[in-house]
Amino acid sequence: MIRKRIAVIGAGASGLTSIKCCLDEGLEPICFERTGDIGGLWRYQENPEEGRASIYKSLIINTSKEMMCFSDYPIPDHFPNFMPNSKIQEYFRMYAEEFGLLKYIRFKTSVCGVTKQPDFSTSGQWKVVTECEGRKEENVFDGVMVCTGHHVSPYLPLHSFPGIEKFQGQYMHSREYKNPQSFTGKRVIVIGIGNSGADVTVELSHVTKQVFLSTRRGAWIMNRVSCNGYPGDVVLLSRFNELLVKIFHPSLINMYLENKLNQKFDHEMYGLKPKHRAKDVALTK
């Protein structure tokens, strides 16, 4: 029986697991990776690459290793609960080597186009055009798995900042940020209180003259580490807590969560209390 050929686009976290799943199902995967290495988002480089997500040097994941590990390959016990990007990349390498995935990856190969075959309605096949070292190639596949992530293109709404064209200082998206050294002694404002905004603000606070964190609607601040030093997501995302959510009214759940978060610091006193309730954030982490 002829095995079906599957094109996997990208060799990051999703791409590697897709290759493994294809092999488990008796399929023949071929992965196309435009760079020269695996890892995708988590492979740190000093200079951002076009078409690839970029991270800052100090980035630590906000999901515990217990929650983020692949089900068929636990993260080693000696790795930290919350891993820096270098450890995540190391884990991906271990995973790829353990299951022999590297031989299915074509590095420095870009996918230029994916189109349906003329007989797609009956064959379900796709034509994939790739380019490597200036040479294009066409191949037909029975399926395509797009594993390119969604953190590639920065969102920089300069139209929301009247007068930005006259600003004499430096401005950038967090995608371009790598380390705090160039901001030593300066006054800096970080716009956005998401994970990256909070990380960058804390790091800059050690070297800048003054740093501000701007948010338009407040936020519930949740720590990585929870009660008794356990990872926050391990404590929060349990079968018992899921049962409580089904039993108790949302207002009671919100009251409990917000009380716990305010024990760290009073969000209203710091001008951070948002209009949305804590449960909306907690259950999506």
From TrEMBL:
Q: Name one GO cellular component term.
A: endoplasmic reticulum membrane
List the Gene Ontology MF annotations in alphabetical order: flavin adenine dinucleotide binding; N,N-dimethylaniline monooxygenase activity; NAD(P)H oxidase H2O2-forming activity; NADP binding; trimethylamine monooxygenase activity
Its subcellular locations are: Endoplasmic reticulum membrane; Microsome membrane
SUPFAM superfamilies found in the cross-reference section? FAD/NAD(P)-binding domain
| CC cofactor | FAD
Does the keyword section mention Phosphoprotein? Answer: yes
What is the uppermost EC class here? Answer: oxidoreductase
- Would you say which domain of life the source belongs to? Eukaryota
Q: Give membrane topology per the record.
A: Single-pass membrane protein
Keywords per UniProt? Endoplasmic reticulum, FAD, Flavoprotein, Lipid metabolism, Membrane, Methylation, Microsome, Monooxygenase, NADP, Oxidoreductase, Phosphoprotein, Transmembrane, Transmembrane helix
Q: Does the keyword Isomerase apply?
A: no
Which GO terms of type biological process are on file?
lipid metabolic process
Reactions performed catalytically? heptan-2-one + NADPH + O2 + H(+) = pentyl acetate + NADP(+) + H2O; sulcatone + NADPH + O2 + H(+) = 4-methylpent-3-en-1-yl acetate + NADP(+) + H2O; heptan-4-one + NADPH + O2 + H(+) = propyl butanoate + NADP(+) + H2O; trimethylamine + NADPH + O2 = trimethylamine N-oxide + NADP(+) + H2O
The EC number(s) attached to this protein equal 1.-.-.-
**What family name appears in the similarity comment?**
Belongs to the FMO family.
What this protein is reported to do is described as: Broad spectrum monooxygenase that catalyzes the oxygenation of a wide variety of nitrogen- and sulfur-containing compounds including xenobiotics. Catalyzes the S-oxygenation of hypotaurine to produce taurine, an organic osmolyte involved in cell volume regulation as well as a variety of cytoprotective and developmental processes. Acts as a Baeyer-Villiger monooxygenase on a broad range of substrates. Catalyzes the insertion of an oxygen atom into a carbon-carbon bond adjacent to a carbonyl, which converts ketones to esters. Active on diverse carbonyl compounds, whereas soft nucleophiles are mostly non- or poorly reactive. In contrast with other forms of FMO it is non- or poorly active on 'classical' substrates such as drugs, pesticides, and dietary components containing soft nucleophilic heteroatoms. Able to oxidize drug molecules bearing a carbonyl group on an aliphatic chain, such as nabumetone and pentoxifylline.
- Under which name does UniProt file this protein? Flavin-containing monooxygenase
Organism this protein belongs to: Rousettus aegyptiacus
